[in-house]
Each structure stands twice: as C-alpha cells, then as structure tokens.
## 1
Amino acid sequence: MTDNLSTIELVLIGALVIAVLFWFSRGLGNLFQESREAPKDWVGLLLPLAAVVAFVLFMMMMVSR
C-alpha cells in the first residue's frame, strides 16, 4: 500500500495521526477517570454473556441431533 504514496503524503498522514491522538487524549483521560469512579456492575456484564453462551450451546446441541 505504501508503495504508491509519496514521501510528503506519508508525512502528512503521520502528522494527521499525531494530531488526532493529541485531540482525543484529553477526552480519553477523562473517560478513564470516570471509569475508575463508576460503580462496578459485573452482573450486568455476566448475565447477558451467560445467556449468549447458553444459547450457543443450545444451538450446537440442536444441530448435533
């Protein structure tokens, strides 16, 4: 892919990536800070995950018959 791009294009793409990283860095820092302070809700994660696993196992059992 990079064989078709000139040097100036590669430099501009790199500068754009760095600019986007700096632009999002403050928001990501705030996001991680709020995540640390949020109450933990493991039941809200594990219950749907268990339901999906049970459904997949049920489908596998139905196909194997």
## 2
Amino acid sequence: MHPASAFRWEDREAMRALVTERGFGTLFVATPDGPRVAHVPVVWLGEATLGLHLARGNGIVRHLDGATAVFVVQGPDGYISPDWYGLGADQVPTWNYVAIELEGRMRRMEQDALVAQVDAISAEQEARLAPKAPWTRNKMDGALFDRMTRGIVGFTLEVQAWRGTRKLGQNKPEAARLAAAEGAEASGRRGIADWMRSV
C-alpha cells in the first residue's frame, strides 16, 4: 500500500463496505510454481471472514488450502493533472485511488458451505437488481445445480491484516483537492472525484 501516512486508511467498517459494494477482487498467493493470481467474487461470511470460490480446474486451487493469501479490492481511481490544482507550475501529475489489501489464511470449504456461499453471493448481488425478481437456485433443476457447483471449489479467507489506501489529494490544500476533483469528474472519473470530495 502507499507508504505515505496521509493516505493510510484504517476504517475497517468502511473497508468492509467497499468490499461488499465491489463484490469482486484479486487473490494472490505464493506457490511452489511461483506467484499465482485469481479473480474471484466474494461475500462476507463473518466479521473478518470472506467466502470465495474458483473453478475447480484453476491451477491455483491446489495451493490454497492452508496458504497465506492476499485479496485485493480496487476502488475508484483516476489520473490527476497538475493543472487542475490551480497551484502554479511546480506540481506533478499523479494517480488517485482507493484500494484494500486483506491478508489471511485460506481454508477449503465443504460442499454444503460452498452452496451456502453461492446462495449468499447471489442474494447480495440480486438485491441490487430490484425491482427485478431475484434469482435463486430454486429456479434450477436441483441435479443440474449440484453438477454445476461441483465444478467450483469454495474457500474462506480469515483476514488477519487489513491494509487500506485512500490516495485522494489529502496532502494538498482543500481548495486544490476540490478543484482537482472537478477536473477528474470532467474527465469522466466521477467515482474518484466523489471520494476526493468526501475527505
């Protein structure tokens, strides 16, 4: 994460909320074959427990149970032009962003826990699609659902370290940061602009 203390983010509830909002991220693990990465959907199963799943054929699967891994969620980001600050010529371009790293121990799930995880992810995501009637596995043939879920493997990540960065121009005067937020929004980066205005 960014080494500057001005950008350190330690609000775990806010980080949990961003993970929930995004619902997807990147899992990193060291293996005997070298570093490996997987892109996975996630759901909170407890205060510091994430549930995730991968295709059974994904080569990373055989290395996960018991491993220490890092799960990364990327929030909004955007290029910041030095011209936007209104502070004169001696400014440099930068990139503002929000990101979370969650480090912890991976544990393989039993099949019934995997099914519950799929149900939880679906329920969380389907709720966002209202007023559409939510999809549930009851809409599928039970045998087909069982075959489909046997093609994936579920894991939990017990989070032991939370590392967050909110690099939003906090090191600039407020007027300059807000001016840069306007520039970011005008360039199509409304997400990072909104975060820049919120600090």
